[in-house]
Design goal:
The protein is mainly α and about 375 residues long. The chain has one domain (about 5-370): ABC transporter involved in vitamin B12 uptake, BtuC. The chain contains 14 helices and no strands. Helix 2 packs across helix 14 (about 330-385), helix 5 (about 100-115) runs antiparallel to helix 6 and helix 8 (about 210-225) packs antiparallel against helix 13 (about 300-325). The protein is globular. The chain starts with a helix and ends with a helix.
């Protein structure tokens, strides 16, 4: 583990890191504001009014019901891949393979949806979800075994597995699963019974959002309210101490990667069954990496991940409106998003020093007040004796 990796883990995994404080709330807020300020400099450089651009970026998301729904549509897979990263991260693992695990889940969901689309909706949707969970879990199991048994770097292995998933998907849509018409590198539509129900009519918002909310609650309960979660977090915070306490390090690492991969696989299921209804080459790219950003921005907690996913969904949806309204390249939003993550990481790494400095100052102030109170009390006593 590199020194940087250790500092990032310490910033989020130390006991008390989850304890609420004004600082934990200020870090993401200040990071977002600073990123927007730095983005303004870039906008001014290319001759665009930042206030006008940010008006489209932020407030266009609330202009109508469809735009609000689109924010949640974008946030759903980001939240799921963010939960995947968070679950592994809390066990001391960097799962950078959310993208590949999502694609694995999508491939499984498409295959099952094509074969079982004629069955009743609750049956075929349930089968697609189960297939995505299993496929994502398998895609996480292999790096977990390589890490737990052989000590391989999970960062390198999961990154390589992203490429394997991307090129396997390209092969499937180009040859074995290519649509019957053969015009485009994509599969046929899955059966209509496999489509996820919409939550709001005339929008793309589907029941996958409910799935993401339920899984966020489950991840919180498992990690912080169960013995299994305690063991997993113990492995993440202090592997040597956990092993001394009798916790099986290898088994818990593998289990964490399997669960993490399964969560990312569900993201592939929601994208296929809820949005695209078929698999295409290069669909939903970078969602896995957006999930990592959401997790770090949200303090590696399920609730924080969900809120951060909505923020990233707003940025992505507003980027299109900003591009149409003032001609700003949508890639500017990617720069702003990257700046937010860099500033959040910097803030969390500075947090221990700032909190220690504030604690020392508070103690000095309390000691000074105590000395002054003691002197005042002695003065009153001496005055009473003289009288």
């Amino acid at each position: 583990m590199s020194a940087l990796d250790k500092r990032i883990k310490d910033a989020f995994l130390k006991p008390g890191a989850r304890r609420w404080s004004v600082y934990s709330l200020l870090v993401p807020i200040v990071s977002v504001l600073l990123a927007l300020v730095l983005g303004s400099v870039l906008l001014l450089f290319i001759g665009i009014n930042p206030l006008e651009a940010y008006w489209y970026l932020i407030f266009s998301n609330f202009s109508n019901t469809y735009n609000v729904a689109e924010v949640l549509v974008k946030a759903t897979p980001i939240a799921l891949t963010g939960l995947a990263f968070t679950f592994a991260f809390r066990t001391g693992l960097f799962n950078i393979g959310g993208e590949g695990q999502m694609f694995a889940g999508a491939m499984a969901a498409v295959f099952v949806g094509l074969k079982t689309g004629h069955l009743p909706p609750f049956v075929t949707i349930g089968l697609c979800l189960a297939a995505a969970i299993v496929a994502g879990g398998i895609w996480g199991f292999i790096p977990g075994v390589l890490k737990g048994v052989f000590g391989s770097s999970e960062i390198i292995v999961t990154i390589m597995f992203n490429y394997v998933a991307v090129y396997l998907l390209s092969f499937l849509v180009d040859k074995p699963l290519r649509e019957a018409a053969g015009f485009y590198p994509q599969t046929d539509m899955i059966g209509e019974n496999a489509f996820l129900p919409f939550l709001i009519q005339n929008t793309r918002l589907h029941i996958g959002l409910v799935v993401a909310i339920i899984l966020s609650i489950l991840v919180y309960v498992v990690l912080w309210k169960t013995p299994l979660g305690f063991r997993l977090r113990a492995v993440g915070y202090n592997p040597d101490g956990a092993e001394y306490a009798g916790i099986n390090i290898r088994r818990n690492m593998i289990l964490a990667m399997v669960i993490s991969g399964a969560l990312a696989g569900v993201a592939g299921f929601t994208e296929i069954n809820g949005i695209h209804h078929r698999m295409m080459d290069n669909f939903s790219r970078n969602v896995g990496f957006d999930g990592i950003a959401a997790s770090l921005l949200g303090g590696a907690t399920p609730g924080g991940v969900f809120v951060s996913s909505i923020l990233l969904g707003m940025l992505q949806t507003g980027a299109s409106a900003m591009q149409r309204g003032v001609g700003v390249p949508a890639n500017i939003v990617s720069i702003i998003q990257a700046l937010i993550i860099i500033l959040v990481l910097a803030g969390n790494m500075m947090r221990p020093k700032l909190e220690m400095r504030l604690k020392v100052k508070r103690q000095e102030r309390e000691e000074r007040e105590e000395r002054e109170a003691r002197k005042e009390s002695q003065g009153h006593q001496e005055g009473g004796i003289d009288a």
